[in-house]
Specification:
Blueprint: H1 6-19, H2 50-66, H3 68-82, H4 101-105, E1 116-122, E2 127-130, E3 135-144, E4 148-153, E5 156-158, E6 164-169, E7 172-177, E8 186-194, E9 197-208, H5 213-216, E10 225-228, E11 233-236, E12 241-248, E13 254-259, E14 262-263, E15 270-275, E16 278-283, E17 292-300, E18 303-314, E19 325-327, E20 332-335, E21 340-346, E22 352-357, E23 360-361, E24 369-373, E25 378-383, E26 392-399, E27 404-414
Parallel strand pairs: 2-9, 11-18, 20-27
Antiparallel strand pairs: 1-3, 3-7, 4-5, 4-8, 6-7, 8-9, 10-12, 12-16, 13-14, 13-17, 15-16, 17-18, 19-21, 21-25, 22-23, 22-26, 24-25, 26-27
Length: 419
């Protein structure tokens, strides 16, 4: 018996197994995608199958080439079907959805038909109201996304305040002014804006002046007159301060106090008092922010009178704002046709003193006014032949190297014989 070593036996079996011909690989399954730039099946890294990889790549190339015309027809057919759908992507019907960047970009999303630009369903109309009445402008607007509302008067934005109340809810926008004055006349615009556009509606407001009070008033109805005016002064931080003036000439009238042209609401800190014909504003404790112009205004249907002064609050360890007034101009009430003179003095010589009426500098070339100075610290303003047009709020403004200071006063003009 021939001896066969175990190693030889196993070697023979291994050789027989290796020498058996390899079965051909199954044909590749190829999926066709529309997306451009598809690189096909990547080569296998196993050396023993390198020939198979090359065959597969060649087969893929051939398939793509031979089916290009039929693929085009399929795409056109799919496109026609997609046009009838609400949503659709430009994919070939024979393949699975592609996740390539190019295909994703071609997803077609229709616009939301519910979205629309603003449209006013209730617009503004021109109107005329009486001086002193309430104004309410109302509009209704539709739009998606919900529009933002802006109000304008004569081209300038109107903001909500103590005087103007703006509201917008559930598509309805309102602008309300409780008491209208002649200066509220003008063009009002409501503008609605969203991401799709802007729409506006406008109206012209005309304020009808009150009837001539002189024709309506009773024979004993007269306007109030301030005869003893407010006095400007320096006060110390934390002090109690009282401003007072004497008002005559009318049986009934109202009095309001203002700080820098804003009405002071009576409170425990700012109390209105009156005794006989003396009217006072009591400030319990003065603070630096209380510095400024104070005005007492008395009025009724027959007319009005007012007086102004300046309070300067001195803060410990701080020098007063320079230049410093040592003599303030005093408010005055004169008869029509009279000439009036206002005087002020400063502690040091300022660079210049200017005079203003209702916030505007008086023209130095006008024959109506006279301006004089001693060349140092004393200055005068003269107003000749006073008329109703001279009534108003005045300021003497001293300008120095380190800043400027103001001294406020008022002028009232009455009919001859009323004083």
């Amino acid at each position: 018996m021939k001896y066969t070593s175990p190693d030889t036996k196993y070697l023979s079996l291994d050789r027989r197994f290796i020498e058996q011909p390899l079965k051909p690989a199954p044909p590749p399954i190829v999926t066709v995608h529309k997306a451009s730039g598809y690189s096909g099946y990547s080569s296998t890294t196993t050396q023993g199958h390198s020939s198979t990889s090359h065959n597969y790549s060649s087969s893929t190339t051939k398939l793509n080439s031979s089916s290009s015309s039929s693929y085009k027809a399929t795409t056109e057919s799919s496109s026609d079907k997609r046009n009838a759908k609400k949503y659709g992507s430009k994919l070939d019907a024979t393949g699975s959805p592609s996740r390539s960047r190019n295909t994703t970009k071609e997803l077609a999303y229709p616009s939301d038909e519910s979205m629309k630009p603003p449209e006013f369903t209730k617009k503004l109309n021109d109107l005329t109201i009486n001086d002193g009445e309430q104004l309410e402008l109302t509009v209704k607007v539709d739009g998606d996304p919900e529009p933002q509302i802006t109000w304008l008067k004569n081209g300038k934005t109107v903001n909500s305040s103590e005087i103007v109340d703006l509201k917008y809810k559930a598509g309805t926008a309102t602008l309300t002014i409780n008491e209208i004055f002649p200066e509220d006349e003008g063009e009002y615009i409501c503008k609605a804006t969203n991401s799709l556009g802007t729409s506006t509606t406008s109206c012209k407001l005309t304020v009808k002046p009150m009837e001539n009070a002189a024709a309506k008033k009773k024979s004993d109805d007269k306007p109030p007159k301030i005869v003893d005016h407010l006095t400007s002064m320096f006060v110390k931080d934390g002090e109690a301060v009282t401003l007072s003036c004497r008002i005559i000439g009318a049986k009934k009238f109202d009095v309001v106090w203002l700080h820098n042209n804003k009405e002071i609401k009576p409170s425990k800190d700012f109390q209105y008092t009156s005794e006989a014909n003396i009217y006072k504003l009591n400030i319990a404790e003065i603070f630096p922010e209380d510095s400024g112009t104070y005005t007492c205004e008395a009025f009724n249907d027959a007319g009005e009178s007012f007086s102004s002064c300046t309070l300067n609050v001195l803060v410990p360890n701080e020098e007063p704002k320079s230049p410093v007034f040592t003599t303030f101009p005093q408010s005055a009430t004169v008869s029509e046709g009279e000439t009036v003179t206002f005087t002020c003095k400063t502690e040091t010589a300022p660079l210049k003193v200017t005079w203003l009426k209702d916030g505007k500098a008086l023209p130095e070339t006008s024959s109506k006014y006279s301006f004089s100075s001693d060349g140092d610290k004393s200055f005068e303003l003269g107003i000749k032949a006073c008329t109703a047009s001279d009534v108003g709020q005045y300021i003497a403004r001293a300008i120095g190297k380190k800043g400027e200071t103001n001294a406020a006063f008022a002028l009232n003009v009455t009919n001859p014989g009323d004083l």
